[in-house]
Amino acid sequence: MNSDGSVKDCLTCATCHDGYGLHPPCGSRIPYPPHPDCIACPAGKFSDKLDSAPCHSCQRCAEHEIVTARCTNQSDTICSGTCEAGYFYSKEDSSHSCKKCSHCCSDGKDEEIPDCANQGFEASKQHCHPRPDRDCNPGSAISPTSQKTGTEASTNGSSITGVVIGSVIGGIVLIVAVVIALCLWCRRKKAMEVLDTQQSVKVEEGNGNASYTCTCKCHFVCMHAYICNVL
Fold first, then answer.
1. Residue 126 class from Cβ within 10 Å (0-12 exposed, 13-18 middle, 19+ buried)?
2. Cβ proximity of 16 and 73 under 8 Å
3. What is the number of other CB atoms lying within 10 angstroms of the CB of residue 217?
4. Can you tell me the distance from the alpha carbon of 217 to that of 211, in angstroms, rounded to the nearest whole number?
5. CB pairs under 8 A, 24+ apart, for 213-220?
6. Cβ neighbours of residue 139 under 8 Å, at least 6 residues apart?
7. Contact in structure between 192 and 210 (CB atoms under 8 Å)
8. Which of 11, 39, 48, 142 has the fewest CB atoms within 10 Å, counting from its CB?
9. Where in the chain is the domain with CATH 2.10.50?
10. CA-to-CA separations, 168 to 159, 161, 179, in angstroms, rounded
């Protein structure tokens, strides 16, 4: 008997068959009168033996890993430890995962994967471990080139900028030259036109008996061709 009048008693936990789990879990504090019960394991959980434990969560296989047996309410998932075609099983850093067989870069830094070679990818040189420094897969954004240093990238950027600036200046100079040539051509054309300037001159015939007033039509080069009107 507790000080508040409640009763504290330890009960023997019930046991449940395969596919069932104890609820509430053994060791829980429950109100009086107690009603622990064995309930069927829901989807995603299982119990594979007669005990007083609750249902356990099903194991999840790695992405692209081949599943040998799926989870039921009486058995856990069985993962094969092998991957689908085009992938290999990796246990790096205690993490089990399936990684894609990658194309080799053939620069002496590749890690060849036997599982990928055994799948027939050696002929196409797609039997290497993915690399963090290079992507040598055909069609990739940076394949098959290596990472450039900051100095190389800066130099290439400066060269491209210089080419663009030079092209712009050259275009401007060409446009100015064309405009000047057009202006000179227009001025020459106007000068070639017949001017309305007239010059009156007195012309006497050889016998001195007649005189004329003549008009000089001056062209770009003034030719002394007179059109004469008899006075």
1. buried
2. no
3. 16
4. 19
5. 219/192, 219/194, 219/195, 220/191, 220/192
6. none
7. no
8. 11
9. 1-57
10. 14, 11, 17
Cα separation, 14 vs 25, whole angstroms: 10
Alpha-carbon distance of 150 to 45, in angstroms, equals: 53
CA distances for 171 relative to 131, 167, 180, angstroms: 46, 6, 15
pLDDT (0 to 100) of residue 177: 84
CATH topology of domain 1-57: Tumor Necrosis Factor Receptor, subunit A; domain 2 (2.10.50)
Alpha carbon distance 119, 51 (integer Å): 44
Residue holding tokens 């963090």? 132
Residue type for 123, please?
Answer: A
How would you classify residue 106: left for phi > 0, otherwise alpha for psi between -120 and 50, otherwise beta? left
Total length of the chain? 231
Q: What CA–CA distance (Å, rounded) separates 181 from 175?
A: 10
- 2, amino acid identity: N
Mean pLDDT, the chain cut into blocks of 10 residues (231 residues total)? 62 91 87 83 95 95 95 96 92 81 91 92 90 81 42 52 77 85 76 49 47 45 43 40
| SS3 per-residue string spanning the chain | CCCCCCCCCCCCCCCECCCEEEECCCCCCCCCCCCCEEEECCCCEECCCCECCCCEECCCCCCCEEEEECCECCECCEEEEEECCCEEEECHHHCCEEEECECCCCCCCCCECHHHHHHHHCCCCCCECCCCCCCCCCCCCCCCCCCCCHHHHHHHHHHHHHHHHHHHHHHHHHHHHHHHHHHHHHHHHHHHCCCCCCCCEEEECCCCCCEEEEEECCCCCCCCCEEEEEC
